[in-house]
Amino acid sequence: MKIGYACIPLGVKYKTNRGFMIKNFTKERLYEAIQQNLLDLLKILEYNVSKGIYLFRISSDIIPFGGHKINTYDWDAEFKDILIKIGEYIKNNNIRVSMHPGQYTIINSPDNSIVENSIREIEYHTLFLDSLELDYTHKVVLHIGGVYKDKSSAMERFCKNFNLLSQSSKKRLVIENDEKNFNIDDVLDISNRISIPAVFDILHHSINPTQDNTETILKKCLETCKKEDGPMKLHYSDQSPTKQKGAHSDYVSIQNFLEFYKIASKFDCDIMLETKDKDISAIKCINTIFPVKKSVMYDEWAKYKYVVMEKNYALYKKCSSIINSETNMLEFYKTIDYALSLLLNEGAVKNTLQHVWGYFKDRANDKEFVKFHQLLSTKEYTKAKAFLKRLAEKYNEQYLLNSYYFIINT
Question: Which UniProt keywords apply (predicted)?
């Protein structure tokens, strides 16, 4: 089993979504953006492997305007060498990648122009994976689309328009249940009609459910996967407690995830986490499920410590002591999750800011000293934290920059 995340890691500064407005489109801008995106994609994959992450969703923005008529550039030929290099790295490290076209890619639309644009978008995603010279275990994930007042006709139209795709796109495409229009039974129906795999999204299912339990659903989804499709793909996320139904949580609750994992682990599957903190939750789940050295807990605590401190100082002290005990990774992460669930405490926030200021007090100039303490005195804590981040970058304080203190939005 592989566990992964989507698109842009938080733990490193690499990104693959560089772009520009269509009115500023030039081949020079396009070339530069593609080159930087591809170089960073390779770095992200290397980072992922260092963290035990072997499942990754590549951003649709990797090639700006990849599925748009304006982009007639033969990027797959121009960047063939780096694309093949990335593909070789993926294959040599047993990584599985995927892509997920956006919500406006709708091949069951009654509007032919929308269908035409959507097919172009799918073909772009397929071309990108093909250009990496990857087999068909590497997928393009798609939702069914709209109902348009007639669900049965909408499903028929999806199946009909599926046949307009290239053979490679047909082999790469997998379809996912959504939270509004098409539940997993609908997806399985279409999947069986056109012989492509179904992807089960647990959060969407909780909002748009069917009668079957999770294990029964996974059995049915598994039956849609052929050997050449690779392991069944699953999407996991928690509901955000503070946002509308269907909104992904800021982080994966390890306790909730393990309840799902208990069922999923009975099957040959890979789990894509869809959560705001991206690689951070993926690392948490991987470290909990797979055996790791005790040093990993120390490394993780170094990243989380100031996040916990600004929530509750007593809990920070507790964590500091339990990592030196026989506590396992599960108990460690359960404590971290509890800390993340707490509301910010003004006293703890201020105390943490002062603690982190200690890294700079002997290096900061007079202007920086005055600025920081001014922000503290006026209780502008968010600005004070942002100021400390700038100081960490200026003075190259790697311990802080490698931590989650400036990354996790608490």
Answer: DNA damage, DNA excision, DNA repair, Endonuclease, Hydrolase, Nuclease
Tell me: pLDDT of 70 over 90.
no
User: Which amino acid would we find at residue 369?
Assistant: F
The predicted-structure confidence for 176-190, as pLDDT tens digits, reads as follows: 999 999 999 999 999
166: left (phi over 0), alpha (psi -120 to 50) or beta: beta
In 119-241, the DSSP E strands lie at 139-143, 173-176, 198-201, 232-236
User: What is the three-class DSSP state of 139?
Assistant: strand
Residue type, 210: T
With tokens 């644009």, the residue in question is 117
What secondary structure letter does DSSP report for 96? E
Residue type at 21 in one-letter notation = M
Contact indicator for 146, 152 with CB cutoff of 8 Å = no
Given the structure tokens 């600004």, which residue do they identify?
Answer: 310
| φ, ψ for residue 10, nearest 5 deg | -100, -25
Cα of first residue to Cα of last residue in the chain, in angstroms, is 31
Task: Give this prediction's pTM.
Answer: 0.95
Distance between CA atoms of residues 11 and 48, nearest Å: 10
Q: Are 273 and 237 in contact (CB under 8 A)?
A: yes
Residue 26 three-state SS: coil
Q: What is the pLDDT of residues 153-178, one digit of tens each?
A: 999 999 999 999 999 999 999 999 99
